Backbone:
């Protein structure tokens, strides 16, 4: 349960086990990128100023009315600007939702880099969750570059690949309208052919000429429906009506005509089949 | 071991609500309700209904009965609640995203086409049979085949009963459909090789499955282009 995890992470942070708390909070924001409390606690648990800024920015996107986080962000930014000379900013008053005072613990070897990579991953996930794929890709790239473990780099690389794939999907894909028109027209016609094949007791030479003729309206109706719905700019319309593009009235009218032409032969022969069943 | 696909865990891409899948499920449930009412009035009436609207190969090949009408009506008849539930769970699990990729009306045409190919296969292979065959399974196998073609990497939440332990794992669609396909092939082999008595129309299932290749005639243009570019449909 996310709430249990948050409680456990807060307990760890209060007990001074910053590293475990940080890992658990990162896990929480990866699972639920909109968890404001977790991002807030992360601000106090990450050591890198960049990571603090990212966490605070995330808090503000989730809750733009969090004035305390806004003030803190401004302070951290000022602190960053004066990074070399200025003393660290004072921490805010502690409460349930705000991070605890930092407990100085010596980071393990490669710990800071890995934490940064994890924060970047979580932020990437958060951007991805909100559909900002370009930003997500940037964060994953940074996480991949900063990751100290092979597993971490692989994880970032995998997410990056997926985001790049989704970005690629956003590009409009050109479609061939004539091919679409022909392809979609064939489907209902094929269904009609199979049905009259069954109606003729699986002997094509016994198909009645009337049923064969019924195939023409099916083809015409199907083409009209596809033409009006899927390819309203097809050159076909210019050849038929001398217009570049179908307007709404013509489109609806032709679609209705197409629907009628398409269904009429089906109804006709299903009715004849019903009559054959109940003479 | 028993397994039943429950739900597709992946989201839709083009539409939000699988209107035609729900409509087909509702229609099948209503028809079973009508069957139950008939059965309560007089069991002979239900038998007569199944004989009239089911698909009987011997009648279809001699030009008797409803012909093409029976191919369609038989896909809406079921032999009982379990028969219906199994088919409809599969239709729900696999139909939603196939409908999304086709659009509701083209999905309906595709569903009926699979039902018809299933009926053609079963009539051709069981030519002398005077037993009416009923059920949506042929069409549902067609939908499953289409799912396999379009979304082999999709994950299906599946009810999995191992002895008495129920499990609900997410299984990759390709494995699940392959399992169902092989189960049909093995059953057909068993029937042909050992002359085993059976009451399931495996031929119709395989016919519907092979009919699924026609899904490319019904796909939304963008879905087909994604497929051709090897992108997720």
Residues:
């Amino acid at each position: 349960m996310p709430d249990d995890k948050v409680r456990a992470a807060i307990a760890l942070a209060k007990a001074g086990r910053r590293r475990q708390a940080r890992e658990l909070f990162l896990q929480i924001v990866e699972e639920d990128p909109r968890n404001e409390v977790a991002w807030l606690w992360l601000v106090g648990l990450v050591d890198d100023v960049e990571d603090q800024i990212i966490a605070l920015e995330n808090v503000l996107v989730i809750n733009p009315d969090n004035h305390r986080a806004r003030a803190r962000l401004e302070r951290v930014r000022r602190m960053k600007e004066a990074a070399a000379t200025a003393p660290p900013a004072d921490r805010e008053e502690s409460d349930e939702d705000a991070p605890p005072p930092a407990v100085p613990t010596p980071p393990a070897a490669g710990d800071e880099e890995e934490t940064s990579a994890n924060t970047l991953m979580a932020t990437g996930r958060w951007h991805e969750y909100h559909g900002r794929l370009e930003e997500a890709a940037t964060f994953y790239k940074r996480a991949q570059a900063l990751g100290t473990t092979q597993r971490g780099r692989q994880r970032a690389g995998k997410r990056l690949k997926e985001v790049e794939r989704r970005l690629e999907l956003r590009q409009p894909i050109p479609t061939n309208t004539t091919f679409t028109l022909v392809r979609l027209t064939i489907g209902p016609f094929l269904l009609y052919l199979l049905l009259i094949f069954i109606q003729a007791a699986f002997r094509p030479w016994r198909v009645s000429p009337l049923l064969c003729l019924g195939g023409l309206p099916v083809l015409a109706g199907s083409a009209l429906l596809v033409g009006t719905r899927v390819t309203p700019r097809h050159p076909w319309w210019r050849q038929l009506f001398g217009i570049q593009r179908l307007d709404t009235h013509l489109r609806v009218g032709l679609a209705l005509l197409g629907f009628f032409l398409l269904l009429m032969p089906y109804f006709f022969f299903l009715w004849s089949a019903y009559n054959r069943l109940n003479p | 071991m028993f397994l039943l696909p429950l739900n597709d865990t992946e989201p839709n891409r083009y539409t939000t609500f699988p209107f035609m899948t729900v409509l087909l499920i509702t229609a099948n449930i209503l028809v079973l309700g009508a069957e139950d009412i008939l059965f309560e009035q007089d069991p002979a009436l239900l038998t007569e209904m199944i004989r009239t609207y089911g698909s009987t190969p011997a009648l279809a090949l001699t030009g008797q009965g409803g012909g093409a009408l029976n191919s369609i009506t038989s896909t809406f008849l079921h032999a009982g609640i379990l028969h219906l539930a199994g088919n409809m769970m599969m239709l729900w699990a696999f139909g939603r995203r196939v409908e999304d990729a086709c659009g509701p009306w083209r999905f309906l045409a595709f569903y009926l086409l699979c039902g018809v190919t299933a009926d053609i296969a079963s009539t051709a292979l069981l030519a002398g049979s005077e037993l009416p065959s009923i059920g949506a399974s042929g069409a549902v196998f067609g939908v499953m085949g289409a799912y396999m073609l379009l979304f082999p990497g999709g994950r299906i939440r599946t009810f999995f009963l191992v002895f008495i332990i129920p499990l609900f794992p997410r299984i990759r669609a390709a494995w699940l459909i392959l399992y169902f396909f092989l189960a049909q092939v093995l059953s057909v082999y068993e029937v042909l090789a050992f002359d085993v008595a059976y009451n399931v129309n495996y031929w119709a299932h395989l016919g519907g499955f092979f009919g699924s290749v026609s899904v490319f005639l019904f796909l939304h243009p963008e879905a087909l282009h994604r497929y051709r570019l090897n992108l997720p449909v």
The first strand of chain B starts at residue 2 and ends at 8.
